[in-house]
Amino acid sequence: MQPAIELADGEGLSALSMQRVAGKLGFTTMSLYRYVPGKAELLDLMLDTVAGELPLVDSVPGGWRAKLEAAALADWALYHRHPWFLHVTPVRPVMGPNGMAAYDAELRAVCGIGLTAREVLAAVHLVDGYVRGAARLSVDAVEAEQETGVTDEQWWSERAYFWVWRDF
């Protein structure tokens, strides 16, 4: 998985192909298909491999807030290390062993504080959704700066006159 992850990290998802991954491994493309049926399955394996970088936050000292904060910070860092992760994670993600372990740890962190099972899910998903959205904006701003040479601050400053007349 590491060569595929490195390729996506370095060149983006558009550079990811079975042929490129096989080449990085020193194999033919067809030989790679003995291990991974296709690109969709490769992406699933990549997602779960990267999810293995997340700490199991139920072991973080402190209460549920400290644990969810640790999960949020770990997710933020993961999204910035692997920006492609934000572009391939489906609404209902594939849950391999690493992804399930991280998700279960987050759920356990919130269990036992008086919430129903549905409320526990909602609390974890609320934090995850917020972090994912904020990270997507942050990662997109970094990518836009790399592509254009214009920082996010410069871009907004150059458009400030649109809002000058408004009284916010």
UniProtKB/TrEMBL annotation:
HTH tetR-type domain: residues covered: 1-54
A Pfam family that the UniProt record links to this protein: TetR_C_1
InterPro entries noted in UniProt: Homeodomain-like_sf, HTH_TetR, Repressor_TetR_C, Tet_transcr_reg_TetR-rel_C_sf
UniProt KW keywords: DNA-binding, Transcription, Transcription regulation
DNA-binding region: 17-36
SUPFAM superfamilies found in the cross-reference section: Homeodomain-like, Tetracyclin repressor-like, C-terminal domain
Protein name: TetR/AcrR family transcriptional regulator C-terminal domain-containing protein
Organism listed in the record: Sorangium atrum
